[in-house]
Amino acid sequence: MAKLTFVGGIHPYDGKDLSKDKPIREVLPKGEMVYPLSQHIGAPAQAVVSKGDRVLAGQKIAESGGFVSAAVYASVSGTVKAIEPRRVVSGDMVMSIVLDNDGLYEETQMGELKPLEEMTREEILTAIKEAGIVGMGGAGFPTHVKLSPKEPDKIEYVIANCAECEPYLTSDYRRMLEEPEKLIGGMKVILRLFDNARGILAVEDNKPDCIALLRQLTKDEKRISVKELQTKYPQGGERTLIYATTGRKINSTMLPADVGCVVNNVDTMVAVYRAVVEGKPLTERIVTLTGDAMKDPCNYRIRIGMSYEELLEAAGGYRVQPEKVICGGPMMGMALFDLKVPTTKTSTALLALSKDEVSAMEPGPCINCGRCVEVCPGRVIPSRLADYAEHFDEEKFLENDGMECCECGCCSFICPAKRPLTQEIKSMRKILLAKKKKK
Amino acid sequence: MSEDKRRLRVSSNPHIRSHVTTSGIFFAVIVALLPAAGYGIYNFGPRAIAVILVTIASTVLTEFLFGLCRKKTTITDLSAVVTGLLLALNLPVELPLWMAALGGVFAILVAKLLFGGLGQNFMNPALAGRCFLLISFPKQMADFTTRGASFGTNGAFTWDAYTGATPLAALKAGESVNVMDMIVGRTGGCIGETSMIAIVLGACILLLLGIIDLRIPGSYIVSFVIFAGLFGGRGFDPAYLSAQLAGGGLMLGAFFMATDYVTRPITAKGQYLYGIFLGLMTGIFRFFGPGAEGVSYAIILGNLLVPLIDKVTKPTAFGYKRGGKSHEK
User: Fold this and answer.
1) Which residues lie across from A334 on neighbouring strands?
2) Contact status, residue A72 vs residue A62, Cβ threshold 8 Å
3) Which positions of chain B have pLDDT values less than 70?
4) Which residue out of A369, A372, A415, A427 would a mutagenesis test of the B interface target, given it has the greatest number of B Cβ atoms within 10 Å?
5) Which of A224, A259, A276 represents a domain boundary (last residue)?
6) Distance CA A409, CA A375 (A)
C-alpha cells in the first residue's frame, strides 16, 4: 500500500537518534513552581486559591474562565507564595500562581470513579473539561471544546496524531512504546463520544516498532486502525494529517469537524485516558531534552509548572555551551533567552543547539527559484507573500491567500537565499488576525 | 567564557535551514555549463577561450564596480559569472572581443542591475546581452566562419575551416545536413550551442541535483517538435526533426536559459504554459521568420509574459476549490 502523505513538505535532519532509545525518566521538582493562568488558547483561568493557602498535588488552583478555557491544577504540594505576572516562554508576562514546593508531593483524595461503560457523553466531556486538558502538541486548544462539535454523530474519524514529524522530538515515540495501552485507552474514551466514528492511529514510517506494537495491540479492536504515514515534515500538521489519512481537505476557515474529523495528539489522548479512566487531572507530561549541546539527551516525565532551568539541571545540564536553546522543536519551537520560565501543558521539548546556523546566514535577494512553492503544504507562494508582508500590502496579501499559511516553516527552511519567509508571513498574519478580532 | 558569549541567540522559527544556497546553485550551473564550454573550445579552438574569459570578466567587473558605488558586494553569489559564461556560449567565436565585453556590460548593467539586481530583472541578462549584440552588430554576430577541429578519416582531429552557414541556415535553404555531426557538435554556430551531447550532459547534472526540472525544457521541446512537424514543411520526418532540435540554440536555451529562475513563472502550471509558449514562438520564428534562429527572441518574449502567466496560474490554496473560495468537502 502506498504510504499516506500530502503534497509539499521537507525532509530535514531529524536528530531523533539522540534521545529515542532511552526510556522515559521521572524527575521530581524541588524548587518553586509557576502555573501561568493562560497556558491554552482562550480565556485565562481564574485562580481559586489565594496567597498563603496550602494546596496538594492534583488540587485545582484555577478554574476555567469560560467555555473556551481550561482549569489549572497544582502538580506538587505546597503553599501559594504569590499570584503575580511571571515571564513565560514567549517572553510575555502572564498572571501566574506561584507555589512554594514543600517537597512532600502529597496528593489530593480522588472522588468515586464511574466505570467508562456507564458514563454518558456529558459525563465524559465534563471529566475531560474538569481535568484541564488542552492540545498538548503545542497549540493548547482546550480539548473538551474540540470534542464538542455541533453534530457529534457526523464525526467519522477520530485521528490520533502520532506522526511526531517535528525533528529531534521523541516524547510521543517513547510514550507509544512504553504506554501504548494508555494511548489506545484514550482513543477508546473519545470513540465513546462519537458513535459513528472510527479511530485512526496515524504514525510516520520512521517508527516501525510503534506501528507494529500498536497494530498488535489493536488487532481485536474493530473501530481502531493503525495507518502508516510517509515520514515528512509537516505530516503531523492538522490539515496535512487529515488529508493524508482521509483524503479530506480543510482550509484555515474550517474546523476538522467540518469534514467529520477530530484530531488529538498522543499526549493529549493519554491525558484523556488518565482523566476519565484514572480520574487524574493534567499535571504531568513528557518533555524531550535533546540537542547536540545537551549532556544526556532523554525524555523526562515532568510535573507541569517546574522551570526549564531546574529541568535542565536535573538532566545533567549542557555538554557544551549552546548558542541557541529552543522550547519545542527546531521547526516550530520558540528560542529562549532565559531558562527561568515555567514548563506548561504545551511544553514538548527543550532543544539545545551548540551552533545557531540561522544567525550565521545572511539573507539575500529572492531568485524566484520556486522551492518554497514546491514545499508549501498550504499551496500558496511564500516568496510573494513575504514580499507583500514586507511592504505591508494587506490587499495583495489577502488576495494571495496569505491567511492560509500554517506557519510550518518549510519555506524558510528550504529558501536558498535564506530569507526569513515564515517570520514575515507570520507577523503579517498576526497583525491581520488582531485587526479582524477588533472589528 | 565571557558573559557575552554565553548569551543565547533568539530568532523566529524555524531554527534550521537547508544547506542549499544561492551561490551553491549558481556554482552548480557553472559546472553544468563546462561540458558545453569545453566542447566549444575543442570545436572552435583557443579563440573561444578568449571570448569566454573576456565576457565573464566584463560581467563580473561590471557587477563589482556597480557594487562599489552602492557599497554592496554581490559578486560572491556567482550569478555574474553564470551570465558571462552563458552569454559567451551564445556568441560566435570570431566576434571582436570588445563587442563581447560590451555585451557583457549591457547584460549586467542594463538588463540586471538597473532593474534592482539579482532577482529583480525581468529578462534573462545573458539573452538580453545577446539580443543587444544581434541588433547592434548583425553582421559580426552572424559571422560563423571559423577554424576549428574536426575528425579526419582515421579519427585524429585536424583544424579545418568551416563554411559560414550554420546547419539550421542550411536546412532552411533546403540543403541536407549531417544529423550525427549536429548531435555531437561538429558544426558551425555559437561557441556553446553546437554540441547537443555536451549540453544534455550538463543539463543532467542540474536535473540530478534538483536545480532544474523537466517542466520547462520538456514542454518547450515537445511543443516545438509538434509545431515543427505540423508547420516545418517536412512532416514528422525523424531526421529533420532531430536536426531542428540539435540545431541552433534550442538545447542550450531550453535547459539553461528558459529555466532561469528569475525570469520564468514560479508555479508548475505556469512553467508548462511558458514552455509551450516558447516552443510555439521558436517554431514561428524559425519557420515563418526571415532567419533560421528563433530561440533567443522566443525566450525574451516569454520572459515578458511571465507576470501575466503568474497571474493566470495563481495556485489554489490547500482546502479550496479551484478558482473559487467555496469550501471543499
Assistant:
1) A327
2) yes
3) 1-6, 145-165, 323-329
4) A369
5) A276
6) 10
Residues contacting A349, CB < 8 A, separation 6+:
A166, A168, A169, A171, A287, A288, A289, A290, A326, A327, A328, A329, A333
Query: What total number of domains does chain A contain?
Result: 2
Average pLDDT score, chain A: 93
pLDDT at A147 over 60: yes
Query: What's the domain range around A170?
Result: 121-276
ipTM confidence score:
0.88
B101 contacts B128 by C-beta, under 8 angstroms: no
H helices within B71-123, ranges in order? 79-89, 97-105
CA atoms of A294 and A312, how far apart (whole Å): 9
Interface test with A, best of B8, B120, B262, B326 (most A CBs within 10 A): B8
**Mean pLDDT across the stretch A284-310?**
95
3-state secondary structure of A287: strand
* pTM given for the model: 0.91
pLDDT value of position A29: 93
Beta-strand ranges (E) seen in B152-193 are 157-161
Written as one letter, the residue type at A340 is K
CA distance A40 to A171: 20
Distance from CA of B17 to the nearest CA of A (A): 4
Tell me, yes or no, whether A286 lies in a domain: no
User: Where a domain ends, among A245, A276, A307?
Assistant: A276
Q: Which of A251, A321, A358 sits opposite B318 (nearest CB)?
A: A251
pLDDT at B293: 83
pLDDT of res. A139? 82
Q: How far apart are CA A211 and CA B251, in angstroms?
A: 49
pLDDT at res. A274: 94
Ramachandran assignment for B212, one of left (phi > 0), alpha (psi -120 to 50 degrees), beta (any other): beta
- CB of A418 within 8 Å of a chain B CB? The answer is yes
pLDDT at A393: 94
Note whether residue A401 is domain-resident.
yes
* High-pLDDT (> 90) share of chain A, %: 89
What pLDDT is recorded for position B3?
A: 45
Q: What is the mean pLDDT of chain B?
A: 88
What distance in Å separates the CA atoms of residue A161 and residue A225, rounded to the nearest whole number? 13
Number of other residues whose CB lies within 10 A of the CB of residue A67: 12
| pLDDT tens figures, A6-53 | 989 999 999 999 999 999 999 999 989 999 999 999 999 999 999 999
Cis check: omega of the bond before A234, within 30 degrees of 0? yes
Give the CATH number for residue A217.
Answer: 3.40.50.11540
A146 in the same domain as A255: yes
For residues A266 and A147, membership in a common domain is answered with yes
Which residues neighbour A99 within 8 Å (Cβ) at sequence distance 6 or greater? A32, A33, A34, A35, A55, A61, A74, A76, A78, A79, A80, A81, A305
Kindly determine whether residue A416 and residue B20, on different chains, have CB atoms separated by under 8 Å: yes
Tens-digit pLDDT profile for residues B29-39: 999 999 999 99
Peptide bond into B14 cis (omega under 30): yes
